[in-house]
Structure formats: structure tokens, C-alpha cells
TrEMBL record, chains A, B:
Protein name, entry field: Aldehyde dehydrogenase (NADP(+))
Pfam families found in the cross-reference section: Aldedh (PF00171)
Residues in Aldehyde dehydrogenase domain copies: 7-367
Organism: Microbacterium panaciterrae
Coiled-coil regions listed in the entry: none
Length: 492, 492
């Protein structure tokens, strides 16, 4: 084995060498390659899920669903790129009569930014890991990908990477479009390499911010798309037994180790919260992902249980086995709004695991301002209200506050169980994400694209997407000569 | 006058208070307001140009053209937003049969990020200043704007701000949508204020990087769109007298104080460069924008003229008047590629003023690699070649290298004289811009937007752009129920 720096430099060199040939592939060829990866993952499902169960402690049904989602999002991205609309191809005809002076022939298209370094997450060993959403988006955009494997599932990472690389190679994609590295130091060194042009990450606020700062401090900074932390407040105008049971199911699923776990539930002060204990006791213990996450959860749980003014609704249990793995059942405490404000240190931070806080409020009119004060950046916010309240305009202020601070606003339902679709937004104001970009759904492809304009270019030297003969048949938006004198005249 | 921090805090509070009402205005109302600003600027052209001439030393024809461009780009943005396509409204129908599990009704739209702080430039007192492109883009997006005036044209900044604010107010836009601040310290403090949600900047690499670092180091970082520095290399396969004369005209226009000035011209080693001196001598002296820029140019000029191996083709003149203003005529030196590589320190840095370097090359095959090595990030790169060369494929490698490192690639012509159009890209890899986003043309609006998704929202609480009755008549892209089973199947 050569030294670390040599390995990192070779990986960067391979990715850089692949960048231009990969960028030149047609959307349909790249789409077919993504589908080939999806097929290969599906074909190896049994093997992969077995390894994942052992390495993460997640359940077979959960991992089966997650792998299906993972191969599905590759197909979704393939479908999203084939028509070429994501390229946003624009053609301005040369216009000697352009209002501010003769306009040349200008053509602009979104091109891949170059090699992307993707830091895998621990809690979704498929969907946010080696072949996950960031990888799918970057490959769809035409960027070579290097994944820094998460140490929580090394064997799964290696096997997944073999399958992905093999399928891309068999589909005729250039060598070097997909590589795996391991080790924190390698990840940091590669993030600082000039040849890496964007970073992506899913994980804790602490680590995500460290990496974002490294990306921003490079001699030539690069964009860093981190999905860091979110407590996903839920505002209920009523709280019956069904709602409280569903809440416990959502906050305890996958042992609460989801970035969309509802960490806070606001309920009227007079709500009967007795169904919480019953529901929580019915949840079986679940292993936390790894000893490090277990330790961190133990600390957070102790802080919350010890917060002055917190009423314990369900204490839950937490035990450690001989390997240092921890197993938990749900913990739920209740506070009033005043206590939450007074004990932000202990209560407001994200608890990654099966722990949530119920906040009793006396006056619903306080909620919009309280939300903006306490929760300035989240992946999601949720409203549970009766049909009449949804229709009568009384929630307008609250919904405005939620939309201003969240990537996704839900009405009814629970934020866990993120669908992968064209209209999904999984990213919001910091610290939900380091930028406001989405890391789930096809809109996330724009993270890995940049505009390039060609002025008076001969047809022979234009990208296919901008040529008059349009060989890929992509949508081209056209600004005709002579049209400029009309611009802005709608307002007259 | 209250103290600085109070002023900054009040400005931030006004901007924040305007954010939600402004975001709720319809694209056509906002477009009409932009047109009203354009009309008001045009109506005050004579007065504004007189002030600008005195404060910047730029010529009346140049400033007349620049003001026309400035009002024009407001009209262009107005026209670009009225149809609502920039909102990228997406609607996924609820789909119980969605392949990865039942899909809720999901609707996503781009919403304004919130208050934007825009640092004005010195060299375009209209087009990149108070009412310039960043202001137009942010207002078009629906974001309140605070402009930090450039100290080089304070009176013009104040008068322009009065006109802009008055027109927006008369058009019915909320109070606080447009404010001006002055002073470096105020700018830095406001950039650190929680209520500012994005920054924009046009200026030097040094100052731009300082501000970008401040934005990235905030407790909650924000995107910072800086347009910093560019040397805009030009690659010529031939160099006749006409080409060399046009080069001198481009590098000396506005005293070379343009971010798209061609700072380097590559020519075959045997080219006759004698027309350079003749053309340079015919250029009248031009004032530099202000004493600070004059001083910096004096230093850069001395470094370049003193670089070992540089042949002086036109020494130019530089004199200082009693007010510390400097006046220059063009300086052009020639080096070979080897000298350029050996003396990067002196030669490669941008010289903001009428100074450029001609690089003689012996082998055109060296150019792609040399370009990528020496010029990793530029606003523009240009090719001058004969028709046969443009058609025969011999430039393919070079154009690939230019596109990978530049925002705009020109064929013939000169990079100065940036048109404002839908397909313009004025932004490229660092240090051209801090991100790859464009600061000219309508594509720049995306800098000030972020995605928000609504899940199972009642019609009454959806933004107008996402409602079924679509009152603004915006394009809505629709994903129907039952369609998902087909996704990715094109590859079969």
C-alpha cells in the first residue's frame, strides 16, 4: 500500500481524467448507465441486505425498502435527464438591432462542474451512501464521483462500489467515473485537492460544518452541499390519541435515526398526553447504528431528561452490550414554551435517536414568532389541524413562518418517509443544509451543473445540446432577433 | 446620527420586515415595479450622468451607454419573470401506486431567499452599482435589497438610491424593499447580521475573498455571490494588423478597468507585433477610476515592466495630478510561454487598468495544457482562428479546455462589451466568481431563490403558483399518478 497522499492524488487524477469524456456522453447514454446500476443493485439485493443488517443493526424490511428506493432514484434520475430539459439550453439569435447594441449569437447550457466528492452517511447505508442520492445526482449531471465510505458499514460500501463501478464500466462509461475511498484523513485531503470541484455530505452538524469550512477555505473554494441537522417541529392544534400514537411511531422508527424525525411536537396545553407512555412502551428496543452514535445519544438523552422543568412522559430504556452497541426504546418529555426558551442548551439541539420533546402552548397566536425564534432552519415543518382551521385562514401566519424556515411544509402526516420525486425538497436554511439546495429528488441535479455560454461559435465546436441540428432533441429556449424592443412593455 | 451598529440593525430589521410582503407580490406586479424603476432612471439620465462623470472620470458616451444598459436590464428581468417560468413550479399528484410506496401530493416552487446585501462595484457606477444587475436580479426574485454603496461614487449612489426607492414605493412595493448603506464597517456588520440571507459583490479578488470568508464563517453561513477577478485569455492562431489593433482597443477601453479586459493574448511566435505600438500610441490618456485604483495599477505596471524576459511593445504613460488621480495610456509587453511560466508572480495576476501581456507560442498543441495550468478560472476565454481551422476539428482540445475553465467562450470578437440577454453567462470557476453563478443576464435570478415543497397542503394555504386554479397562469410541470412504473424504462 502506498502512502495516503499518493492514493488520494491518484484518485483525484483518475476522476479528473474521466471528467471530459464523461461530460461528453449523451443524456440517454448516461441514463442507460444509471439504469444499469439500478438493475445491478437489485440483482444483488439479498447479498447486500445481509451485509447491511449485520453492519448497521437496521431491520430487513427497512433495508429492503431502502435498497428499492436507492435503485428507484437512479431510474428516476435517468428518466429526468433523457429529455435534456435539465440542461436549460438557451439560444439568443444574433441581433444587430438589439436595444443596447448589436447582440452576438449567444448560447448557454448547463455543463457538469467536474469531479464530485460525496461523503456517505451512516444512517442510510443505501439511499444516502455509496450509490445514494448524491451519487445518482452527480452521475446524472455528468460528473465523476468519488465516495468517501462511512466507517459504519465498510464491507457494504466496498461491495456496493464494486457493483456500481462494474455496471458503469459495462455500460461503456469512461474509467474513473466512480471510485471509493476510505478513511477520514483521505476524505479531508481529497476535499482539498484542486481537481475536486464540489462536495456533498449527509451527517452531523459538527462534522458537516468542519468539512464545509475546509471547502470554503481552499485556495480556490468549491461549493459544499451538506445536509446536517434538523429537528422538524410539528404544530398540532389538537392532540388526540391517534395523533400521539402516530407521533411515537414516527419519532421511534429506525430508532429515531432519521434526519426528518419529528424532534418537537407542539400541542395545546390542555391536551391529554397519557397515550404517549402507552405507545412508547409498545415499541421494541432497537439497536443504534454504531457505538459512537449510541454514546452521543446517551449524552443527549441524559441532558434532556435532566433539564429543569421537563416532565418525563416516557423514560425509555438504554442498554449497552459487550461490543459497545446500544439498544434503546423511546424517550419523550414534555415542557411548556417558557421552559423551552429558558433551557435551549439542553433541549433545542438535535437528538439523533428515539427521543422527542412535546411542547405545551397556551396561545396558538404565539407560535409563528416562537417558531422563527427557536427553529430558524429545518428540513421540514408540519401542521396538524382540523379541516375547518385549514380552510379559514387562521393558519396563514404560521404557514408563512414555516415556509420561510423550512424546505418542506407538511399538512397532516409525518416528516419521516421522504418520497423521491420531481417536486421533493430535502434541504432548507442552515443548519438543515449548508446551502438551500435539495439532496433528494431530481431538482438536486442543479447542484452539480454550471452555466457555460458560447459566443459566435461555429456549429462544429458547440456542445450537441446547443447545435442548430439538435442531435439529442433537447428543449432549446430561443430569443429571436428583433424581439427585444417589446421587453418590459407588458407594464405599459 | 446614531451609532453604526444601531443603523445596521435598523436596516436589517426593515429589510426583514419587507421580506414576506414582497415575496407575496405577483411576478407581474414586481415586473411592473422594475419597469417603473427603469423609467425613473431614464427620466433622470442627464442629471445622473453628470454626477457620474465627475465622480468616476468615465466618458459621457460610455456612461450614457451604461445607464441605458442598466435600465434595460431591469426591463429584461421584468419580462423574464412575468410568465412565471423562473418559479419552476412542480406538482406531483398523490399516487397510492407509486413504486416505492404511496406518494403524497407534493408541490415545489422557488421562493425568494430573503434580504440580499449587494456590494456595489467602482468600475460600473450604474450597471454593477446601486441599480445594477445584482439589484435587478434580487428584486426580480422577490428579495428585499440593501446596497452597500461604493465609496468611489457616493453622490451618484445616494441619488440613484432615492430614485430607485421612490419608484418602488410609487409602484406599491412594501417599505424596506430597497435601502442604501455606506461605509466598509457597516457593510461588514450587515453581512454578519442573521437577517441578511445572501450576499452579492463585484470587485477585487482581495476584497471579495475577505467578504466571502466572512459570509462562510457566520454562525449560520449564507451564499455569497462574488465576481472577483479574471484575465480573460485570448488564443489567436494568426495575428494580423487588424486583430492587434482590435486587441488594443479592447484592452484599453474604459482604461482597461473592465472585468472582461483581455489580459493575455497568445499569438504564434513569428507574428509581427509592430502594429501594437502604433495602435497603443493612438489611444488618448484616460483617468483611472480613483486614487486607490491608480496606485494599485502603478504597482502592477511596474512589476510587469520589470519582469525578466518581458519585451516592452508599448510602454505607455502614467501621470498623477494634484488630487492623486492617475491618467494612463496603454502598456503592452510580450513574453514567451516559458517566461510566463517562470515569472508567474509578476505576470499572471490581474492588472486592473490598460495593461496586457502578449504571449508568443511555438507550438499550438501546447496551448490546451498551458491554459489549464495557468488559467484555471476566468469569466471568458476567446479563440481567434481562420474559418478552415474552426471547421476542421483541430481546435477541439483547446475549446474543451476553455469551456472547462471559463463562463463564456468566444469565437472571434473580444470579451469586453458584455451583452445582457437570457443566454449570457458572466461567472466562472474561481476566482472569476466565488460560485459558478452568473451575475449578468436573466439566468442570475436563481442565485436568490430556494426550493420549498408543500405536502398535502390545502389549496387555501398554497402559494398562488402552486394552486390548481393557477391564478398567475405560471407553467406548472405535472407528474401524474400511475406514471412512475414507466420511469427508467427507456433504457430497456
Amino acid at each position: 500500500m502506498t502512502d495516503t497522499t499518493t492514493v488520494v492524488s491518484e484518485v483525484a487524477a483518475h476522476a479528473a481524467a474521466a471528467a471530459r469524456p464523461f461530460a461528453a456522453t449523451s443524456p440517454s447514454a448516461r441514463g442507460a448507465a444509471l439504469v444499469a446500476v439500478a438493475d445491478a443493485l437489485d440483482a444483488h439485493a439479498a447479498e447486500l441486505i445481509t451485509v447491511a443488517m449485520r453492519e448497521t443493526g437496521l431491520s430487513e424490511p427497512r433495508l429492503t425498502g431502502e435498497l428499492k428506493r436507492t435503485s428507484w432514484q437512479l431510474r428516476l434520475f435517468a428518466d429526468a435527464i433523457v429529455d435534456g430539459s435539465y440542461l436549460d439550453a438557451r439560444i439568443d439569435a444574433a441581433d444587430p438591432a438589439y436595444v443596447i447594441g448589436p447582440r452576438p449569437d449567444l448560447r448557454r447550457v448547463l455543463e457538469p462542474v467536474g469531479p464530485v466528492l460525496n461523503f456517505a452517511a451512516s444512517n442510510f447505508p443505501f439511499a444516502f451512501s455509496v450509490a445514494g442520492g448524491d451519487t445518482a445526482a452527480a452521475l446524472a449531471a455528468g460528473c465523476p464521483v468519488v465516495v468517501k465510505a462511512h466507517s459504519g458499514h465498510p464491507e457494504l460500501s466496498r461491495r456496493t462500489a464494486e457493483i456500481v463501478a462494474g455496471a458503469l464500466d459495462a455500460a461503456g462509461m469512461p474509467a474513473g467515473v466512480f471510485q471509493l475511498i476510505e478513511g477520514q484523513q483521505n476524505g479531508v485531503e481529497l476535499l482539498q485537492d484542486e481537481r475536486i470541484r464540489a462536495g456533498a455530505f449527509t451527517g452531523s452538524t459538527h462534522v458537516g460544518r468542519l468539512l464545509a469550512d475546509i471547502a470554503a477555505a481552499r485556495p480556490r473554494p468549491i461549493p459544499f452541499y451538506g445536509e446536517l441537522g434538523s429537528v422538524n417541529p410539528v404544530y398540532a392544534t389538537y392532540a388526540d390519541a391517534g395523533l400521539l400514537q402516530d407521533f411515537v411511531a414516527s419519532m421511534s422508527g429506525s430508532a429515531g435515526q432519521l434526519c426528518t424525525k419529528p424532534g418537537f411536537l407542539f400541542v395545546p396545553a390542555d391536551a391529554d398526553l397519557s397515550p404517549i407512555a402507552t405507545a412508547a412502551e409498545a415499541v421494541a428496543e432497537h439497536r443504534l447504528l454504531n457505538p459512537g452514535i449510541g454514546r452521543a445519544f446517551e449524552g443527549r438523552r441524559a441532558a434532556v431528561l435532566g433539564a429543569e422543568g421537563a416532565t418525563v412522559l416516557a423514560e425509555g430504556a438504554l442498554r449497552e452490550d459487550e461490543d459497545g452497541q446500544r439498544y434503546a426504546t423511546p424517550t419523550v418529555v414534555a415542557v411548556d414554551l417558557q421552559t423551552l426558551r429558558a433551557h435551549r442548551e439542553e433541549l433545542l439541539e438535535e437528538s439523533f435517536g428515539p427521543l422527542s420533546v412535546i411542547v405545551r402552548y397556551h396561545d396558538a397566536a404565539e407560535l409563528p414568532a416562537a417558531h422563527e425564534e427557536l427553529f430558524p432552519g429545518n428540513l421540514t415543518s408540519t401542521v396538524h389541524a382540523r379541516a375547518a382551521e385549514l380552510a379559514d385562514g387562521s393558519l396563514h401566519q404560521l404557514v408563512g413562518a414555516l415556509a420561510a424556515t423550512s424546505g418542506r411544509v407538511l399538512f397532516g402526516g409525518w416528516p419521516t418517509g421522504v418520497s423521491v420525486t420531481p417536486a421533493m425538497q430535502h434541504g432548507g436554511p442552515y443548519p438543515a443544509t449548508t446551502t438551500d439546495a435539495t439532496s433528494v429528488g431530481t431538482a438536486g441535479i442543479t447542484r452539480f451543473l454550471r452555466g457555460v455560454a458560447y459566443q459566435n461559435a461555429p456549429q462544429e465546436l458547440l456542445p450537441a445540446s446547443l447545435r442548430d441540428d439538435n442531435p439529442w432533441g433537447v428543449p432549446q429556449s430561443f430569443s429571436a432577433a428583433g424581439s427585444s424592443t417589446e421587453w418590459g412593455s407588458f407594464a405599459r
